[in-house]
Records
---
Amino acid sequence: MNSEIPEIEGEETEVREVVQTLEEILAGENQLWTKITQPALEIILNGHAAYLDGLLNSKRASLKFMDLSYLDITGRNLTQADCTGARAEHATMNEANLGAANFYAADLRFASFIDANMKRIDLRGACLRGADFTNADLTEADMRDGLLMKSIERGEIVSVMAESDSATLDRAILKGSDLTGARVSNAFVVQTDLSDAILRDARFVRADLSYANFTGAILDGADFTEANLTGAIFHGAVLSHTILDNAILDDANLTGAIMDKVDLTHVNISAAHLPKHASRLDRELREVLTDHANWLNSGGSEGLQADFTEVNMTGYNLSEVNLAAANFSYSILKDVKMMTGNFMMCDFCFADMRDVDLSNADFRGAKLQRANLTGANLSGARFDGLPVGSHGGGMWPANLQFAKLRGANLSGVDFSNANLEGADLSNSNLRHADLRGAKLVDADFTNTQLGGAKFRSADLRGVKGFPG
């Protein structure tokens, strides 16, 4: 027993030395940042406001290597401020003006930038893991890699953050944000929510975007050269002139995506999930329609419900047919003729219905969440509620949440009681349309013709472009 005692004492001594070394390392790391209190920050912010107003003896805010963690900068103006290497985990910067500010190599993990102006901001090398950029304006933001070094005591040079944390956007929320012209090359954007984001001409060269969510995103002209898009979701995304050269698309889901003028010559899409053409259906279209009619007439006991999920039906004629309760989710219906058809209770979620003729068609009770109806002709169509049951069970409204109806002909459409939350109705013709009781929260009416339209009892909270 005694012979083991020196060995135990030696182990205890070694453990103490290791713990002491770790404490020294941590102490040295903490010395890189200067902790600042909220009142002290307010003084700097007020001074910066005076600087921006051009007042004498005022100076630009310098928050280099400051520890701003958990502090509140909501609604403040930090235009052109120098926040190089700042530590701001969990800081709140909602609705702040951060245009052209320098956050090079800053630690912004889980910070909140909701509705913030971040035009031309320098985020090179910044760690943005879990940060919330919902509806933020990141136009021309620079989010590429970068590594910041700093001299500490005895002239030693150290990196401010681990290189693996540099330029990371993983698990960040960029829903509805505008990243037009942003540069995200080589960054890690793993499992990031980019749904409804505007990413026109953004550069994602060699970026790791595996399992990112691009649902409803605008990707016109975006550059994904050599990017890792494994498992990424593109439901309802618009990829026009998007560059995918040598990108990895294994298990990427492109159903419901709009891919106009996309050169696929230098990309392998064999392992991606894509819509199939109607010609590859198991049965002829005429047989599908006959079986569906039997299914409807028999109350489901005979025939077979029509299922066009993820099918490309471009150019087909479905006018005057009864396809009530059919499934068109994620389908491509561009240029299809569907006028005066019966599409009650159909599922058109994420469908590409651009330029479709839907005039006088019946869509009561149908689901059209995130459907793209840009330029479609819906004049005289019905989207009002469908009675539920025969004993006053209420109405089943059509659902067009986040649908794109830009430039559509909606004259005389019956949208009464329909759900149009977040729908894009810009540049459309809504003359004499019935929107009484409709849910229009956050809908966009920019440049929309509204002469004679009825809005009594409609929910207009947060609408854009609506005449005062």
---
Amino acid sequence: MSVNTFQHIIVTRPITTASPLLHRLAALGLHPLPFPALEIVDNPKIKAYFQTFTHSYFDIVLFISPTAVHSAMKLCALNTLLWPTTQFIAQGPGTAKTLMHYGFTSIIVPENNYSTEGLLALPILNQVKGQKIAIFKGAGGRDALAPYLERQGAQLSRFDCYERRCPTTNIDLSTQIDRPKNSLFILTSCAGLHNLAVLLHFAQPMNKPDWRDCHLLIINDKMKSLARELGHKGKISLADNASDDAIIQCILTLVGAGNTP
């Protein structure tokens, strides 16, 4: 196969976070298109929580996404000097990279599994009784981490910094893509997948093109089951995780281009 196996590769990440992946795909000679299936907006209720935040102390501060990092920095000017002995945890390498952009250096990241299970496998989260832990995240989502930590005796503070919404888009993919079967859509969350099904009318497909035939690149079996429930009938491929490296490696494997440079 060649890199032309896919007519287009559609990146469904929010417009605020899609650029790095779009640039890397273009550099590989692929044909990426932005088609956001998620819109990120600030949680208007969260600002009041930060009036006394920096006067508190936390043993562990955990960030679930790069967006959560940006939100925390904007809302409370969090920095490495605030609590010198605090342990900072990032759920994945993208989140860790964003923290480093803000000057953080000692960051704990799961080695391979960037899911909730990967976080809970970290030794630092196995003995949390009496520990004060702050979690920066988006509203909603799976939310299995916080209840587990509370059951283990942690004193938890949740900060739902942002909300995810289905965007209103005027992008007509049918003017650029005439063969959904030859198009690959990258999705890294159930929320994004559900929104894509809404935006492309999976429930009431148009005769031409039928977007249910597109090839999906997702990150877990839960998303695969949801795709079928929503009416998708095309091919599905699984990346190891939601990182850019894992996504690109999966794509290169699909097109037979070898290993990620």
